[in-house]
Amino acid sequence: MLLRPSPLLRPGPLLRLLSTSPPPPSQAASLSLDLPSLRNTFLGLRHGNSEANQLGVVSSSPAVATVSHGLSPLGVSQATASALAFAGQVKLERYSENVRIVTSDFLRARATADVLFSKYSNSDVDILTCNLVDDERLRERFFGELDGGPDDRYQEVWDLDEKDAGHTEMGVESVNSVLARTTELVRELDEAEEGRCYVLVAHGDVLQILQTAFKGIGGERHRSLQHLETAEIREFHMLPVARRW
């Protein structure tokens, strides 16, 4: 993880870890959370509307998406609204003031996390602590041959997902691979500390797939769960129904 003390300080080229494919999950990584209960609170925040969304293109290559396709003006507004809503929930003691924001290092997610960090830190909430870190395990699912092309082809991949969570057709990262890396992160965070509120800032498919682990259902069913809209923040927990606000 890369500690980022300020949302105003953009990482330079030497701090960006670029690659053309997602990092391989640990060999020991499980496809479930494998935890009896959670010691911390976890929320998923999908990035705000991005330049890639505006262009209608798939942007899943780290070499491109870590340096381009940031938030659109609409995305900044969406992220701001979610940040203020989150601060309000903390003020109402809905969530712990001990907050850690963990974000994908893709530009659109990182920019969303920066907005959340800035608005939360500058709110009138009595903050215990708040910091922000990057983690590659929250990167967007790699979409192989679809990367850089029109985003109206996602359904082709999702139809294949439903039949086989391990498929890599068209060079796409498998659902199981996404599950392995994201559940590894959640287990690591939950075992390290207690009483924190973790906000995981990531991408549509990544958060959709991660939800299946919290709900204890197979990854191939990720599209059966309620979709996260851009800049939507949702609590993840191991109960039948996830709270949404």
TrEMBL record:
The family database entries (InterPro entries) matched by this protein are listed as: His_Pase_superF_clade-1, His_PPase_superfam
Cite the Gene3D superfamilies for this sequence: Phosphoglycerate mutase-like
A Pfam family found in this protein is: His_Phos_1
Q: What is this protein called?
A: Histidine phosphatase superfamily
